[in-house]
Design a protein that fits this description.
Strand content: under 5%
Shape: globular
Structural class: mainly alpha
Radius of gyration: 18 Å
Number of domains: 1
Low-confidence stretches: none
Mean pLDDT: 90
Largest sheet: none
């Protein structure tokens, strides 16, 4: 009985981690969009497609995610519940946050820079929470693993190729490629590491152990 309660608690906290992580990531995406300094490579791609077909950014993200999942499955990468949740809810959260309109759209550069930095920080922290749930990689990471296995190139090489490819295509489709895209690429890893440190700290706190163990 105690074992079952323990498993239930761990399952609850894992799902809380993945949904809160996806929501924080979605906020990070919207903050970088509203800052209008350039977004991360995949969002250059998503926004470029959205500009061409008239869909919301979130729906494009869902559609792209579904295609990536299908390709990964064909390439024999195992799918997990977290992959599906990422595909469905990240785009949904982005559209909701945009519709709620609480992220400011500012004009002056000195005002937009803090908005952008906030977005990068939120993105990195959210990814750390999402990964800590250990429920499976997102669609883009699944494709990265599939291409790495199929091609036998290094993970870093495949990831770089993917980022450059989608950013380039997105740019020609009208996506917001800019200085912020470079800043994002150079800084998001640091904030992801900070997020992982924060997650480890939470797991060591007395309150966490009291509630979940």
């Amino acid at each position: 009985m105690m074992l079952n309660k323990h498993k239930i608690r761990r399952t609850i906290i894992r799902y809380l981690a993945i949904f809160s992580g996806l929501f924080v990531v979605a906020n990070g995406i919207v903050f970088t969009i509203r800052a209008d300094l350039g977004v991360n490579p995949w969002d250059v791609f998503h926004i470029g497609i959205a500009n061409q077909i008239g869909f919301t950014i979130g729906r494009v993200m869902q559609g792209v995610g579904l295609i990536l999942i299908a390709v990964s499955y064909i390439l024999k990468v195992r799918l997990y519940i977290g992959t599906i949740l990422n595909m469905v809810f990240l785009g949904l959260f982005v559209d909701l946050i945009i519709s709620w309109n609480y992220v400011p759209q500012l004009e002056l550069l000195w005002q937009r820079i803090p908005i952008y930095i906030t977005g990068v920080v939120l993105f990195g922290l959210g990814v750390a929470f999402y990964i800590s749930a250990n429920l499976g990689a997102g669609p883009r990471d699944s494709l990265m693993l599939a291409l790495t296995t199929a091609s036998r190139f290094r993970v870093g090489t495949i990831r770089t190729f993917m980022e450059i490819t989608v950013a380039t295509i997105g740019f020609f489709l009208g996506g917001p490629l800019g200085l912020g895209t470079v800043i994002f690429a150079l800084s998001v890893g640091f904030f992801m590491e900070t997020g992982f440190t924060f997650v480890r700290w939470i797991k060591k706190t007395a309150l966490y152990r009291l509630v979940w163990y």
